Amino acid sequence: MEIKANKINGANAEIEATISTDEVNANVEKIAKQLSKTANVQGFRKGKVPVAIIKKQYGQKLVEDAEAEALREVLSKGLDELKIANESLIGEPTISKFDKSDDKIEVAVKVAMRPEINLDDVDALVPDFKKPEVSDKEVEERIKEIAEGQAPLVNIKRNRKMKEGDTAVIDFEGFVDGKAFEGGKAEGFELLLGSGQFIPGFEDQLIGVKRDEEVELNVTFPENYGSKELAGKEAMFKVKVNQVKVKDEVEVNDELAQKLLQKEDATLDELKAEVKKAIEQEKLAKLYNDELKPKLLEAMVEKLDFDLPEFVVEQEIDMAVNKKASEMSEDEIKELRENPKKLEELRETFRADAEKSVKATFIIDALAQKLGVKVEEQEVMQTIYFEAMQMGQDPQKAYESYKDAGYLPAIQMSMVEDRVLSTLLNKKIEE
């Protein structure tokens, strides 16, 4: 067996070999002898089947297994020659050449390795930034908002005209073409005017109406309304205003602080400190997500230089091409199938972005290992559950849907990326 191993770059290598027919035949003999000891063949006792019978019965399968064993030997010897450990490999080796003739097989196997990335200068790539400041006015306004949110609704004493911000307690029934429709009726419904909770125009027409008045409101359902039977239709609602409520006033004092902080001796100053801390975190998260994280990742992709595994880049291009194909007409897809050159030109338009994407993935992976950042599957599940509940969806169904679609690894990687970048930025603050 003649082997020639060549390390193309830091992430790719090729092993070329010539396997003689004699070597394949020797493998056939060896496999046949092993099989003769375990095979069940009618008319023979187990372990006593002649090798000639095994060869006759298994024929081509023996040859294929013998060739496969020779290929494994080629790979093993080639990796030894290149001094590449098995754990450094990523993906499956690719057979780029397999030419058989009467006396030999000429093969070429491409392998990809996890690239080595020098992360010594990563800290220097973290952009300079100032920790967001929070003014006393912002804290006071936030506490006022919280207090208003805690305030109970109370009936207004004077029977005045309703205005935006009032909560109307109403009975209503809706009609389309003079007929009441399903789901268009309710009693004692609390509607905050100006909230945009109802069909456009409904809340606006209640402004100026008083308690105990009955009115008819004419509206048009949006074209994209959830119910196809009602989408785009004109409707009339009969509405009776039973009560008008407003938010009661809540004093901003130590008592409010004790209620919100769940602490008997809490003070307003403590509440202000907690609120200030929360606003700082909100501002910092916004700064991180909107500006600093994209900027940091872009800088690392641009400045860190290393070789990329070819097959990973090609896979990324495949995904981009498939996505593009889903937006193309049948004629355009047919043209690509019939014109390999045009398909190759299309693939090349995605190469630069694919390389950046793959590069970013390897950088984040290497940093995660260096910084000890991990995201367990349980955390991914909790994140999906939380988001589903916020959107009013069934958490278990949402999780199963993501799992069935194969999205969990991508979600996990996204969480790792977020945590890695946050770790680097937080380190910058500490410095």
From TrEMBL:
Gene Ontology CC terms: cytoplasm
Molecular function via GO: peptidyl-prolyl cis-trans isomerase activity; protein folding chaperone; ribosome binding
SUPFAM superfamilies per the UniProt record, alphabetical: FKBP-like, Triger factor/SurA peptide-binding domain-like, Trigger factor ribosome-binding domain
Protein localization: Cytoplasm
This enzyme's EC code(s): 5.2.1.8
One Pfam short name: FKBP_C
Keywords: Cell cycle, Cell division, Chaperone, Cytoplasm, Isomerase, Rotamase
Record carries keyword Cytoplasm: yes
Statement: the UniProt record of this protein carries the keyword Cell membrane: no
Catalytic activity: [protein]-peptidylproline (omega=180) = [protein]-peptidylproline (omega=0)
Signal peptide stretch: none
Biological process annotations from GO: 'de novo' cotranslational protein folding; cell division; protein transport; protein unfolding
Residue spans crossing the bilayer: none
Residues annotated as domain PPIase FKBP-type: 165-247
Family indicated by similarity: Belongs to the FKBP-type PPIase family. Tig subfamily.
Function: Involved in protein export. Acts as a chaperone by maintaining the newly synthesized protein in an open conformation. Functions as a peptidyl-prolyl cis-trans isomerase.
Domain remark in the UniProt entry: Consists of 3 domains; the N-terminus binds the ribosome, the middle domain has PPIase activity, while the C-terminus has intrinsic chaperone activity on its own.
Protein name in UniProt: Trigger factor
Gene giving rise to this polypeptide: tig
